[in-house]
Structure formats: structure tokens, C-alpha cells
Amino acid sequence: MTFVNKCFCGLRGEYFCKTSRKFISNPPYNHGLTGCGKKGRKQYFVPDNLKPKAEVLFGINPVLLALKNGRREKFHRLYIKQEAWDIDNDNEGVQIIKEIATERNILISYVKAGVLAALSGQRPNQGVCLDAGKFPVSRFSGDEKQIRDSLSNDRTNLSPYPIWLLLYEIQDPMNVGAILRTAHFMGVDKVILTTEKSCKMNSVVSKASAGAMEVMTLNNLSQGRKSYLSFIQLWKSCGGSVIGTTSSQHPKSESVTEYSFNTPILLIMGNEGYGVEQEILDTCDTLFTITPGTQEANIVSSLNVSVTTGILLHSLLNKKIKS
User: Fold this and answer.
1) Strand duo 138-139 + 218-220: pairing
2) Which 3 state secondary structure label does DSSP give 242?
3) pTM for this entry
4) Three-state secondary-structure class, residue 164
């Protein structure tokens, strides 16, 4: 089977198959990351009798945690690499996945590696894919009672004060996944997502989060700046402090290493390109800056948003746990 590449730089690539005389695209859930760099890869196909009905999760941890927690709407089919069930296979994660799928009467198909590659958009799948329903993200109404109840009851970290994370229009699924992985590990009490210009909670995010997305309760705010500002004001009325981030000098800027707090914290992390818009920054009580450790920091003038989130969360939580 011969392919002629027709690559559109940026979000997707299309390939013309001379045998079938059709253009073949990567699956719709394979968000981004195709581009020219992958034009030489061999393309694979999913037979009609194996085509997924919904979203395809891939990788051992995302599939395992999705099945264990059962929060998705439905599980249609589990795909396992044929060689994965050789008698000598000792991968405990894959064994548990099969056991759970068998208990729940989920259809299991043993397929070739090429089928898994097609299902996962040629991303690392560790020999396992799962055709599953949409991941639930509930709407956060933003009323004061809901915030106060959550602050009292939904505690997960060891800090005396709750820490919530607001992801403001972050678009890269790899960044969002890495942030969710860090947030879960560090014990963030709640993650709030903006609906406008933001990455959807898809299988790429789940894989980048090492499956943490599958066990977290995520909430969306209603669309629009007014909704975001209203939520921030309600947070303040409940006695919480609001922290933004900035890479430049600002009257409100403060190094995270010098900051101490005795109230619930809402940490806002902004878009990869433009950060957080000024109107929202103006509502913040404090703006964190991270001091570079080199005089040549002007060469790379800022940190990746997921790395920044990890540094800030560790600094905040470590300080309160020690005290």
C-alpha cells in the first residue's frame, strides 16, 4: 500500500492512499501534534468490524484508571495487542485491565500492533486501547453556597487551607495533562476549567496526565469573561485569596518563596501565549513570579505553563505542610 503525503503544517496531516484512492486523515481525537515531522510515518487502518463508537483511550494507566473508576458514560470495546496475552506475559497492569473488562462483560478484541497504532493516532499505547464514552465534566454553578460547601468537604491535600486551580484558556492537551497529573499528585482540592478557547478533556489529555484525569472531579465555568470574574468575586466573598502569575514586574508581584498564606487559595494559570487577560489579573490579590537561576534567562524568558504550575504548587503546599 503506497501513500503520498499531503501535509498541512499545524493541526493535521492527510495521506492519499494509491490503493484505495482516498485521502486518509488522523482520527479527530488525535488533537494536534501531527505536522510535517510525522509525514514519513507508515499509516495504519482500523478494519470496519473494529471501528470505535466513541473516544479511544490509549496506554495502560489511562485505560486501567478509567475502568476502575467507571466515570465515563459507557465502555464499548477493549483492544489488546495479540502478543500481550502470551503465556509469558507478566505485565500486571494489562492483566488487571483484562480482568476488569471480563467482569464487566466488555467486549475484548485481540488485534495487531498496526490497528492499535491507528486507534491511538500513532501515539504510544503500550499495547492497550479502550473505546469509551465521553469523560464527564460538570458545570460549576459558581454560587456562594457551592463554594463554601466544597471548601468544607472536598479536601484532599495536607495543607491546613484548601488550594484550587483555575486553568484559564490553556489549549495544549499535553500541558493540560501534565498540569492535571501534578495537581493530583500534589493534592489540589479542585480544578476549574474555562470553556472558552480551552482544550477539551480528551484521550490525549488523559494519556499526558498518566490517567490522573480519569480519577479527578473537574468543573467547567460558564462561558465568558463575566462568568470568570463573577466566580473570582464569589471566591473572595467566601474568604479566599486569588493568585495570578506574571513574568514581568508588577506592583502586586511577589516571589512564591516569600509568600505565606492563611486563607483558601485560588491559583490561576494562564494561556500558553497570552497568559491571563489584564481584567482578571486586576482582581488578583497577588501575582507570583519565579526568579530565574541564571543571568542568561533572557535567552529563554519564560517557563512552560505546566512546569510553572508544578513549581508554584510544590512551593505553596510544602511551605504549609512544614509549618
Assistant:
1) parallel
2) strand
3) 0.82
4) strand
Q: 303: burial class by Cβ within 10 Å (0-12, 13-18, 19+)?
A: middle
Find residue 268's DSSP bridge partners: 166
**Do residues 205 and 178 touch, judged by C-beta distance below 8 A?**
no
Distance CA 111, CA 130 (A): 12
| Residue 122, C-beta contacts closer than 8 angstroms, at least 6 positions apart | 26, 30, 38, 41, 44
Give 109-163 pLDDT, tens digit per residue: 999 999 999 999 989 999 999 999 999 998 887 678 888 888 877 776 666 788 9
Across the beta sheet with 265-269, what order do the strands follow?
A: 138-139, 218-220, 190-193, 163-167, 265-269, 241-245, 286-289, 253-255
Q: How far apart are CA 302 and CA 314, in angstroms?
A: 18
What is the C-alpha separation between 84 and 78, in angstroms, rounded?
A: 13
